[in-house]
Specification:
With 402 residues, the chain is an alpha+beta fold. The chain has 9 helices and 18 strands. The strands form 5 sheets. Strands 6, 9, 10, 11, 14, 15, 16, 17 and 18 form a 9-stranded mixed beta sheet that branches. Strands 3-2-5 form a 3-stranded antiparallel beta sheet. Strands 1-4 form a two-stranded antiparallel ribbon.
Length: 402
């Protein structure tokens, strides 16, 4: 075969290989296996390793002379290696310079990092304030200006004259202070014929004439007052854990039939609140109202409405205990108002009070050696419990007042 017809000629080595070291390539494909018998026949008889004479490495393989190092051509960046058709190979990426790792976004460019600053001693950074105590080179601080003393603000001019309009309306029984402020904001109040819509307006309580519009009267007519015979086990005010408020008894089914009041509507419960306490272990008359005038009459600061109770007790009354119950006891560091108390029999007392502190009767009886085992309220002001069944309620009639 001529050199021009040999496709591998340009890759052959310039030096000829020794004939004894020349060997024919053996095909090693998956389909064809080499003939081992033929290989053994060519190689000659087997020589025992122990009987084989020892030779130096240079004499053992004279034909294997040192070959010159192959010349490696530097690849050009512009030339892209192309795999021959029909062959398999691993495509390697272009070599990159040391220290330049690709960024997460796929770019191999990285901004040059700023040189790191020399480490600073921790003592200079985190020195405590006490370090400056014995230093003579401590910088002097500028003197802080002394804070001006607080002076009470005195308003110029004479003090405001008159009384707040909402207070005058409450004292005259037109409405509560809350309702008065609401009506003033809505423009429903007139003083001496002039409309007043500013909160805090002061007037002369003696000579001022106050009138309200029909809207205010309609709004007040929606307020209701309910009389309930509360059973034991219901709380009158805010419900405590595992307790049921008494307002849950105000339903159409629990209304006293033929009581003469209006038909019950769910909207009537809006703003309904108890006017006076009655603890969970007590029973009797409980008033719930959305009318500010009624609430002021019963639980206002200057209220003198009487509350009447029938009390069943146990224990032995101390000497002079009845007189102490009438006047002479104090609760929470404050003396109690005089009360009217009568002993009906050995285990029953009759109380009439003009105040209503928390669990007042029970605490009063404990101070004189008695224990309350039953308490029932039968009257508030001029309204009596009467024959109202327990658990039922009725409206306050127009001809009734406390």
């Amino acid at each position: 075969m001529s050199g021009s017809d040999d496709p591998w000629g340009k890759w052959r080595k310039p030096e000829a290989v020794a004939p004894e070291a020349e060997a024919k390539p053996v095909a090693t494909t998956r389909d064809a296996k080499p003939d081992l018998v033929a290989i053994k026949a060519k190689s000659g008889p087997t020589v025992n390793r122990e009987n084989r004479p020892k030779m130096k490495s240079a004499e053992a393989a004279p034909a294997k002379a040192k070959r010159p190092a192959p010349v490696v051509e530097t690849p050009v960046a512009e030339d892209k290696p192309v795999d021959p058709t029909g062959t398999l190979g691993v495509r390697r990426s272009a070599p990159r310079e040391w220290g330049k790792l690709p960024l997460r976004g796929g770019s191999s460019l990285r901004k040059p990092s700023a040189p790191k600053a020399a480490p600073v001693e921790s003592v200079a950074v985190s020195a405590p304030k006490s370090v400056w105590a014995n230093r003579t080179d401590r910088p002097e601080r500028a003197a802080r200006p002394a804070s001006a003393p607080k002076v009470a603000v005195v308003r110029d001019g004479p003090p405001p004259e008159g009384v707040r309009l909402s207070k005058v309306m409450s004292e005259r029984g037109l409405c509560s202070r809350r309702e008065a402020d609401l009506w003033i904001e809505r423009g429903w109040v007139f003083v001496n014929g002039e409309q007043v819509s500013e909160l805090g307006t002061r007037i002369d309580p003696q000579s001022s004439e106050i009138t309200v519009t029909q809207d205010a009267k309609k709004d007040q007519a929606k307020a209701v007052t309910i009389l309930l015979h509360k059973p034991v086990g219901y709380v009158s005010g805010q419900p405590e854990p595992d307790c049921v408020p008494a307002v849950t008894l105000i339903t159409a089914e629990n209304q006293l039939p033929h009581s003469g009041g209006p038909e019950f509507k769910p909207w009537m419960l809006r703003g309904l609140a108890p006017a006076g306490r009655l603890d969970i272990d007590s029973t009797g008359l409980l008033v719930l109202t959305s009318d500010g005038r009624v609430a002021k009459r019963l639980i206002g600061e200057d209220s003198d409405a009487e509350k009447e109770y029938l009390v069943r007790v146990s224990g032995e009354l101390i000497k002079g205990g009845l007189d102490l119950l009438r006047h002479g006891l104090e609760l929470d560091g404050k003396p109690l108002k005089p009360a009217w108390i009568k002993q009906l029999n050995e285990d029953q007392l009759h109380f009439i009070l003009k105040e209503g502190k928390k669990r007042q009767i029970r605490r009063m009886c404990e101070l004189v050696g008695l224990h309350v085992i039953g308490l029932k309220r039968v009257r508030i002001g001029r309204i009596r419990l009467g024959d109202l069944p327990m658990g039922q309620w009725r409206f306050l009639r127009p001809d009734e007042a406390f």
